[in-house]
Amino acid sequence: MLTDTHCHLADPAYEADRGEVLERAWAGGVGHVVVIGESPAAAQRALTLAAGDSRLSATAGIHPHDASTWSGESEGWLRDQLAHPRVVAAGEVGLDYHYDHSPRRQQHAAFEAQLALAAAAGKPAVIHAREADEDVAAILSAHSGVTAILHSFSSGPALLRAGLVLRHYVSFSGMVTFKNWRLDHAILETSLDRLLLETDGPYLAPVPHRGKRNEPAFVRHVAERVAAVRRMPVEELIAVTGENARRVFGISQRKVPSAK
Questions:
Q1: I need a labelling partner for 206 at 20 to 30 A (CA). Which of 77, 116, 133, 196 fits?
Q2: Per residue in 33-73, pLDDT tens?
Q3: Are strands 125-130 and 148-150 parallel, antiparallel or unpaired?
Q4: Of 171, 175, 183, whose CA–CA distance to 204 is shortest?
Q5: Is residue 260 one of the residues assigned to a domain?
Q6: Which residues make beta-bridge pairs with 56?
């Protein structure tokens, strides 16, 4: 099953034609999309979408950009969200030292609290790491009870190897098709049973759609590039990564009738 494991489908960028976007995805062979809820508002929109279609799942969390908003109220909210059967992961959560929209101390506190909640709920966490490899690796090591997905991987070898030692998952986006991509070694080093595919739509549209809005149907371009790097048939790569997605997110156990 071709699976887009990370798409901001609830984003306003899709508001005008979300139905058509999904029809293109299903027609293109996509079997499931994980809709990211990186804030309370986005998580509510993601859950509303997922509740109406068994081919969609939702996540919920506080992005590191908004870590300064983390509070006791946020903790209660996320605990409730993670108890919902259609919410399959915490996220995206993590550290972002490139923009530093929230103070690093608050980023750390929110990150660790959300990892603890994910572990308590028995659900994985979708990790955002930007220019913070060492600290992300250290925090993940301290929270070994939670399974992590290193989202849209573009970090260095230290975080990759730390994640693989802990048996975390590594997800690759349309960045693998960019001319300046230099991390084929990460695709090769990632264990096949820990490999995932994503779009990160509406961002990071792959070649040949660079400069356009990204969408779930384009995840096939990611699959084709990753398969080429690993020198394996693309349909085999799709099958393996689809099984990985089902395993980590528990997708196959969550069957909800599609909305009519």
A1: 133
A2: 999 999 999 999 999 999 999 999 999 999 999 999 999 99
A3: parallel
A4: 175
A5: no
A6: 33
- Residue 96 counted as domain residue: yes
Cα angle for residues 61, 87, 136 (degrees, 5° grid)? 40
- Token pair in block for residue 218: 């384009």
Other CB atoms within 10 A of residue 218 CB? 27
Give strand pairing partners of 57: 34
Output the CA–CA distances (angstroms, integers) from residue 49 to 9, 22, 87, 184, 251, in the order listed.
9, 11, 11, 34, 15
What is the rounded CA–CA span in Å between residue 242 and residue 216? 14
Give the whole-angstrom CA distance, residue 37 versus residue 227: 29
| Cα end-to-end span (Å), the chain | 23
Helices (H), the chain: 18-27, 40-51, 72-82, 104-121, 133-142, 157-165, 184-189, 219-230, 234-249
**Confidence (pTM):** 0.95
Residue 69 DSSP symbol: G
Structure tokens at 116: 């603890």
Q: Range of 233's domain?
A: 2-253
Tokens 């506080």 — which residue?
62
Rounded to whole angstroms, the Cα distance separating 187 from 14 reads 30
Domain presence at residue 259: no
Residue-wise pLDDT for 173-188, tens only, equals 999 999 999 999 999 9
- Of 45, 87, 94, 35, the residue nearest 70 (C-alpha): 94
Indicate whether 258 belongs to any domain: no
Residues in the chain: 260
Instruction: State the angle between helix axes of 157-165 and 133-142 in degrees (0 to 180), rounded to the nearest 10.
Output: 10
CATH of the domain at 91: 3.20.20.140
Structural domains of the chain, count: 1
Do the Cβ atoms of 115 and 67 come closer than 8 Å? no
- Supply the DSSP symbol for 253: G
